[in-house]
Amino acid sequence: MTQRIALVTGGTGGIGTAICRELAAAGYRVVANYFPPELQDAQKWLAEQQADYQDMHIAAADVTDFDSCAAMVKSIEADLGPIDILVNCAGITRDKTLKRMSPEQWHAVINTNLNSAFNITQQVITGMTERGFGRIINISSVNGQKGQFGQANYSAAKAGLHGFTMALAQEAAAKGVTVNTVSPGYIETAMTSAMPTEVLDMIVNSVPVGRMGSPEEIAFTVAWLADERNAYTTGANIPVNGGMYMSA
């Protein structure tokens, strides 16, 4: 069987890196998307990953720009082949209470965290449905489920991402393409480690498991959803949050 190709947007970030490595370990050819101005960092990242996984690749695109995404996908498919697995992982924060939030902060988060899913997914969905196989996995957040003070933009984008999942799952289900959401809780990354100790302690105290999650735990869930054998799970939102938020 031809080796399947996985594209991970925001693939050089903390959670993105863990996802890329998990998918590579599962035998996929993995392409990590990065923001074009960060080429030097992406090249360094690639050299580090290829020490363990030779079949790792990088591809540049501004995920907020539809044409940039189209050009990236076209280039990947010309060089490697069709994309079978898409993980929409790109995301940023611009936290501020709504009364102090600028239009730029609102639009930056909506464009990167939500509009990017449209920009990338539309490039691959037709090919997936025509081939009769595809896995689309959208990385949301516990704060898209419960909301978070100072994150109206982020919570709206992440909640919208699961709405996107549910609608597309219905469009693609009969064609062998599953679409699911993973909603991480607080995960140990460079971004969270920079937070003040008292804030981190408060977060950990709110998690029933009693600790923050690891990027590898998110990656494991993504790999499970990407597996060919997992063909009957679609339109789901899988919470990986240590019990921080539970719903029926």
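Next protein, fold it too.
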Amino acid sequence: MSENYTLGVEEEYQVVDAGTRELSPKGERVLDRALESLGDQVEAELLTSQIEIMTPVCGSLSEVRSELVRLRRGVIEAAEKEGCGIAAASTHPFSHWEDQELTSKGRYRRLVESFRQLAEEQLAFGFHLHVGIGDREAAVEVLNRLRPWLAPLLALSANSPFWLGADSGYASYRTQVWGRFPTAGPPGHFGSLAAHDHLIRTLVETGSVLDVESIYWDARLPEKHDTVEVRVCDVCSTLDEAVMLAGLVRGLVRELHERALREEAYPEVRPELLTAAHWRASRHGLNAELVDVEAGRAVPAREVVGKLLDLSRQALEESGDWDEVSSLAGETLERGTGARRQRRAYERNGRLEDVVDGLVEETERGIR
């Protein structure tokens, strides 16, 4: 299997009590059960109400789908044995961060000691996509070119409208919670791998971040993997949305990598405009105009997503993923994101418990 354009997916899930629908502290017990069938492809997260799965390195989108089915099924079955359900979304509709228990892992305790209240309030769940790029110098060029396209990826994935029992007014409120860390948000522009690595060393050596793993940019180069990791997206409730974003990100990274190899020019966008585009995608998802960063104007969300698909089309066609990814993206544009479905579930009866039930049902759909 080529080291370029392989694909890996990480999803962080909510462990919810089947009766109260609140976040449950039984995540460690669920993890113990899940380890029996899933091994090292499942692990604990910051809080005991969280659990994370990691696919193996995949060569095709169909393999990603199969692995996500297997891993979601394993975690769901483990949770059921503890009287819990699994919800895939980036915030819980009403559980409070004050009520959560910290996982008994040294690094997480150091994180809280370092960032205090900021870390304690991180009741947020992430969705991370790894695309293999064997040459890290070339991967830096991909990071530079990815920056304008992170906001529409966020808008497509938006799935965290509720926070502490109220509608936040945002399609992705996780973005606002997570974005308070000093290295969160879009990455800067780097002239070389050496410049990239020097900045990271400086951030660590000055105590600005806990360690290299605490570089939380929306797209980054992980220390332990030869990949470009895209971290901007919310967790997707449905399997189809997760597969769609995985395929789209791989197609985008592949296209940008090949343009970098051809030394094609690209716009170096102002960081202020990137931040504004990122905020607008977090605030509205697909329900309002987004910022076309290259053109420097506000346009309908459908138009920005269309440009993203057009950019990625050749790479998606070459991998055989165009029909599936474009079809699933079209469905998302038509029916709306997970944030829209969560709000509709609440509007029916005014019960946030119904929102949780909907998330659990969507997480299980197509799994068994």
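About the second fold: The mean pLDDT is 96.
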